[in-house]
Amino acid sequence: MQEITLEYVQELILETQQDKTLKEMYIHKSPCAENGVGAVFFALGGSPPRGYAMYLPEESGKKGALHVFDNLGLKRKIIHCVILDLGRYEANDVWHPHEMVSQANTTNQYPSIREK
Question: Is the separation of the CB atoms in 89 and 27 below 8 Å?
Answer without folding.
Answer: yes
